[in-house]
Write a structure and sequence with these properties.
Elements lengths: L8 E5 L4 H12 L3 E5 L11 H11 L3 E5 L6 H15 L4 E4 L14 H29 L2 E6 L2 H4 L6 H21 L4 E9 L13 H10 L8 H8 L10 E5 L2 E4 L17 H12 L19
Parallel strand pairs: 1-2, 1-4, 2-3, 4-5, 5-6, 6-7
Antiparallel strand pairs: 7-8
Length: 301
């Protein structure tokens, strides 16, 4: 492909399959040394999926090693980053891609379903980023690419755990961008549209979910990788704290929450004056509660 991230050391979580695998292959093809992280195993051989991806990369002439620890604990996340340091002497980028889904309507969701998703998506993204941070500071540079989702940015049915984690990752990314800017460390988010092993678990139990799945099946996971490679490269040195999306051949740039209207009242407000004056003034600017698919009704190209 090219040399946009030549000799950069990149840890990619959840890269044994799906979007993560495509990330690993794309980074390696662009010159990076890749740490392929995944806890998953192949169904037919029980071999770690990460080892299979490493073999693919090496067969194509690239450099890669496998790390099969979980990202969902502090210690194991640090072990993954240390493995990169031990193998290649540095760490330049972390791609927080690993994820699971436990879809359930909010009123039916169990504590286990809530915690499992939060642990992998949100805690895993924090642990991995935090483990890399001292190394980024010492070398005065680095990049973190997080996976968010329109389920958090916009909303979706049956995904309160996933939506909460993915919206929290946006806040985490922004905080990292602010806290680490003086060390030339960048942090950005990508909201991917793609059909993967994870999204294949979405139940088709409602008309809305059936329509959503039908469209997602048209979207190739490999289309997401070029943006991730760019964000890890020196060409993106000026890009931090931003939110992007990829949907087939479309790239989105998302706005972020800002105040859009204000209303002042001398002497302050009471519940009654809020009901009489404030809410009627704001209601024309209210956002409708719609699932993310409603805002992308056109077919992907």
């Amino acid at each position: 492909m090219g040399n946009m991230v030549k000799d950069k050391v990149v840890v990619i979580t959840g890269s044994g399959a799906g979007i993560g695998r495509d990330f690993a292959l794309a980074f390696a093809a662009s010159g990076a040394k890749v740490v392929v992280n995944d806890v998953g195993r192949a169904r037919d051989s029980d071999e770690f999926l990460a080892n299979q991806v490493v073999d693919e990369i090496r067969a194509a002439g690239g450099e890669a090693i496998a790390a099969t620890q979980s990202i969902a604990t502090w210690d194991s996340a640090h072990e993954i980053i240390q493995k990169a340091i031990d193998a290649y002497g540095r760490i330049d980028c972390v791609v927080n891609n690993a994820g699971i889904v436990r879809d359930r309507f909010f009123f039916k969701m169990s504590e286990e379903e809530w915690k499992a998703v939060i642990d992998v998506h949100l805690n895993g993204s924090f642990y991995m980023s935090r483990a890399a941070a001292p190394h980024f500071k010492e070398q005065n540079g680095g990049s973190i690419v997080h996976m968010t989702s329109t389920s958090g940015l916009i909303g979706n049915f049956g995904q309160s755990n996933y939506s909460a984690a993915k919206m929290a990752i946006v806040g985490l990314s922004k905080s990292i961008a602010l806290d680490m800017a003086k060390f030339n460390v960048r942090s950005n988010c990508i909201a991917p549209w793609a059909w993967t092993a994870m999204t294949a678990t979405i139940p088709e139990d409602t008309p809305e979910n059936k329509a959503r799945v039908a469209k997602m099946k048209k979207m190739e996971a490999g289309k997401i990788a070029p943006l991730a490679v760019y964000l890890a490269s020196d060409a993106a040195a000026h890009v931090s704290g931003q939110i992007f999306g990829v949907r087939a051949n479309e790239i989105y740039f998302f706005n972020q929450i800002r105040m859009i209207r204000s209303l002042h009242r001398d002497g302050g407000w009471t519940p009654e004056t809020i009901a009489e004056h404030a809410m009627p003034a704001f209601e024309s600017s209210f956002f409708p509660n719609v699932p993310s698919l409603t805002l992308t009704p056109w077919d992907p190209i």
